UniProtKB/TrEMBL annotation, chains A, B:
Record has Kinase as a keyword: no
Pfam families in alphabetical order: M20_dimer (PF07687), Peptidase_M20 (PF01546)
Designated name of the protein: Peptidase M20
Molecular functions per Gene Ontology: metal ion binding; peptidase activity
Disulfide bond as UniProt keyword: no
Peptidase M20 dimerisation domain span: 187-344
GO terms of biological process kind: proteolysis
Keywords for this protein: Hydrolase, Metal-binding, Protease
Lineage of the species this protein comes from: Bacteria, Bacillati, Bacillota, Bacilli, Bacillales
PANTHER family named in the record: BETA-ALA-HIS DIPEPTIDASE (PTHR43270), SUCCINYL-DIAMINOPIMELATE DESUCCINYLASE (PTHR43270:SF12)
Highest taxon of the lineage: Bacteria
Amino acid sequence: MKHNEQYINELNEFLEIPSISSMPEHKEDVKKAAEWLKGSLQKAGIENLEVIETEGHPIVYGDWLHAEGKPTVLIYGHYDVQPASPEELWETPAFEPTIRDDKLYARGATDDKGQLFIHVKAVEKLMQENGELPVNVKFCIEGEEEMASPNLPPFIEGNQEKLAADAVLISDTSFIEKGQPAICTSLRGALAMELNLKTANTDLHSGVYGGGVPNAIHSLVNLLDSLHDESGKVSVEGFYKGVQDPTSQLREEVASIPFDEEKTKEELGLEAFYGEEGFTFQERTGIRPTLEVNGLAGGFHEEGFKTIVPSEAHAKISCRLVGGQEPEEVFEAILNHLDKHKPVGASVETKKLITAKPVSLDSNNPMIQKAAAAYEKVYGVAPLFPKEGGSIPIVEVFSRVLRSPVVMMGFGLPSENLHAPNEHIHLENFTNGIETVTSYLKSL
Amino acid sequence: MKHNEQYINELNEFLEIPSISSMPEHKEDVKKAAEWLKGSLQKAGIENLEVIETEGHPIVYGDWLHAEGKPTVLIYGHYDVQPASPEELWETPAFEPTIRDDKLYARGATDDKGQLFIHVKAVEKLMQENGELPVNVKFCIEGEEEMASPNLPPFIEGNQEKLAADAVLISDTSFIEKGQPAICTSLRGALAMELNLKTANTDLHSGVYGGGVPNAIHSLVNLLDSLHDESGKVSVEGFYKGVQDPTSQLREEVASIPFDEEKTKEELGLEAFYGEEGFTFQERTGIRPTLEVNGLAGGFHEEGFKTIVPSEAHAKISCRLVGGQEPEEVFEAILNHLDKHKPVGASVETKKLITAKPVSLDSNNPMIQKAAAAYEKVYGVAPLFPKEGGSIPIVEVFSRVLRSPVVMMGFGLPSENLHAPNEHIHLENFTNGIETVTSYLKSL
């Protein structure tokens, strides 16, 4: 396949900027990426461009609104990226884009600079070909997605008219596998929190106090172990409130997405799958709520040995939420559980880090059906409509506040190492992505 | 109280050497401390001095064997010290000895350079006063105590004749409190190990795999929580093999050591004591075996958040052993338990780090009774004979291999911050210690 060299050279410029939003030392780089994007949108013919300051990193806004009587599409994406660490595992440096084997390697190549840039170039191409666009277009691109979008929801709430659209178009998801496009129609909500458990004001000598005082690690493992039953079902009272049993139609839809159990097991080095009884792997990871401990630490855990009774231990927990689950109610339920199961002599402090409501989209919506047709035209294959287990908190906000269908037209692949070393994008999907988006915009 | 300034100046020289045995970058400092000690023993009149190389740090040996027909005392101590970290919590630098309030502050001040130096000066004083010593004396001083003495036991085994003695004298323990001396007559054994639990070959995205695959942290907390029952009693089958129920005499002895529950609770910030039912705090921490998790870590536990299903988690565990418990058997019992309780999909690797057998000494032994008399003469108070909960592995080796009574004549105080910032020794006990040791040696 022949790619547009000029487009790739420009994308490389974008990828060279280490716009890591979660690292304060990269604040200027994040700003630089915002300004670069503004320039690139200007070149594409987008008007009314602004780099809007927030309490964190800026939002880039621009529009082209001269297609009278035609629908308006709001394009969302993010120009910030994950940290590159562990850097030693990158075959070529994270911020030196390199093509190998028709794939472009760089941090942000697929998440989300590469996917976002598809829209910039699709608009530019349409503008160059016709001197105008077939629809009205608005761009709202943030620089804080990788830190859970703290400032975008209030911006959306406060600018409903400015952002109003007939569809919100997002390319920040993946195909099922190479050659099989997908439009995600369901995202789980999320709740992330941390907890710190304390039993004494200092670590104690295990020879002097061991066996006679509470041990913060014993207390923490006891408390964390109480969060699930033996089958992996969450034991927190009230956790499943608002969760419907899946209909047989939904179960069929979920089962229709291809999934190779044995291959996955082998690739990930798993001895066994494991989870809530009565549900398949795909149901457990796609449409059921979960509670996972993502990290914990306490006492002395470095090389060597220290015979202490640890006085503190902490853990990070996140939940994926579905259906009618309310993040705030789930948080309360967990707090009640922790309080009820708190071991003798332990005090527990908690902090809520992230909340996002689950969202479900109707695949029969015409804006989504037209996206499906565009995929089929370019790839020769109709897209599937998977229920994704992940969370993109902003999708629910767009959907709820703007009351618009959200079209998640992803061009990534699950194998492209997002958030990991050697992130890349298949150039085939970059080039076909531009085709698909232009085709979609024309079809509206 | 007037102290010997010359002695303290010399001790300061000793304390200035950062002989941290566990840190390879201090290897030369450890050697320097060994050579310094050799010079100091030579000055005291000790003969046949050697700095004996081992696979790790050297052993300093010397003797004076001209007291024909008199008993022989082997003096043990260690010239290595713990690391100074966290250094920012020291009021004055760890290796710049400073006197405040009649206390000498420095790393090693009480553990064990200061206590060891009491013997060097006691011998020197006796030699200066009488031109000879009242008993035969051997010094065997190691540089690896703070790393669990890996090379001393084989040295003792291989040099039984050279080290043969009527008593082994050690000053590396503490008073009950200021003014109340103690001769420790029981030390618990120890077993330390680490375990690493794995569920997959890489951390996984919790939105994609959460709820459907084993989580290494869930597995680890489940496994660790199975090690104790609700009362804090160890649940490992076979763990208590060889442990006798305490006799009423032993319980009385233990109860006779003063202990202020409320004060301890307040000082340590404890909400409650906690441990095996049917035993007092002092029994739990002194004469009962224990199993403590000393540290654990897994997944992402730094600042911020990462929504992963962790694939690995590890923990460090140590046991205190008593009576007929064999460290190797206890290790096997724990391995069996881990294997039996291993959660679905988890693989567990373990590594044994330290073993030490418990030791119990007869307080009626004349060598111990004479030490008690020496304390009473100098301090005006008879010492108590506590059962210490800690472990000094080498005591059991001396006792078993040399078949000699071990006299643990400590001059530290429990409040002297050993292994912690602002370690110090009360100069009163340094000066009275020299008096007590000279008095003891004369009395033999």
